[in-house]
Design goal:
This protein is an alpha/beta fold and 220 residues long. Helix content is 31%, strand content 28%. The chain has helices spanning 46-53, 76-86, 102-112, 121-126, 143-155, 173-188, 200-203, and strands at residues 4-15, 18-30, 35-39, 61-66, 69-70, 87-90, 161-165, 192-196, 208-213, 216-219. Bound molecules: adenosine-5'-diphosphate and magnesium ion.
């Protein structure tokens, strides 16, 4: 059993008479401790695939399995529970709620995943070098701090799967290095990582590099 598997995913968008096939039969598995990087031009379906894998969106065909359990075509609440238990999500930006402090964001994430432990908030932030910023709001953080804070939130529930959508697109090279170091530690800890990226240095660390093109995944 792999931490995350997708079978023949299809996703269509309609606007007026125009149909866009964003995913056309995407299958993939990521093993525990494996880092798979996916590169693909803008519009190739990266964000759509991430949303489907995370259960934030429902595929029109095929299904996703997380921790051995089918996530697709289950109720919103079942998907939310599976996601909270198994999946960490890291977006390019907007990973933190603006009205909560950094510590508050971690606390909320813990509560959602049912693993609330006040004593764990500082250690969680220390891992990304942000313990001193616990009481800061997102608007008070630098770009690099926001990125590291987003990673801390994504890792809060100690997920088995980490999905990231261009996590280093908006950060300087120093922050990219710090994020990469953290991510590689996660891989060593057995997390299955799937990262959509344009970064050659990040992709170079991957166990497997796949390309997404017009909604199709190429395993090369
Ligand atoms: P990427 O993240 O690789 O840039 P996306 O997954 O965002 O690609 O988009 C894949 C395709 O689906 C694109 O052609 C995009 O225009 C289209 N698309 C994405 N979201 C929607 C939507 N909500 N409505 C209509 N078309 C969409
Ligand atoms: Mg995208």
């Amino acid at each position: 059993m792999n931490p995350i598997e997708a079978f023949e995913l299809y996703r269509f968008y309609h606007s007026g008479d125009v149909e866009t096939a964003a995913l056309r039969g995407v299958s993939l598995q990521v093993k525990a401790g494996e880092f798979v990087a996916i590169m693909g031009p803008s519009g190739s379906g990266k964000s759509t695939l991430l949303s489907c894998l995370a259960g934030l969106d429902e595929p029109d065909g095929g299904y996703v399995q997380v921790g051995g359990e089918r996530m697709s075509r289950r109720s919103e609440s079942v998907r939310a529970k599976l996601r909270a238990q198994h999946v960490g999500i890291l977006m390019q930006s907007g990973n933190l709620f603006e009205h909560l402090t950094l510590g508050g964001n971690i606390e909320l994430q813990m509560r959602l995943a049912n693993v609330y432990n006040a004593a764990e908030i500082n250690p969680m932030l220390s891992r990304v070098g942000l313990a001193q910023r616990r009481h800061a709001y997102p608007s008070q953080l630098s770009g690099g701090e926001l990125a590291r804070g987003g990673l801390a939130v994504a890792l809060t529930a100690r997920p088995h799967v980490l999905l990231a959508d261009e996590p280093t697109a908006e950060v300087d090279s120093e922050t990219e290095g710090q994020l990469m170091q953290q991510l590689m530690q996660q891989r060593q800890g057995g997390v299955a990582m799937l990262i959509f990226t344009h970064s050659k240095s990040l992709a170079a660390q991957a166990d497997r590099l796949l390309t997404l093109q017009d909604g199709r995944l190429h395993h090369d």
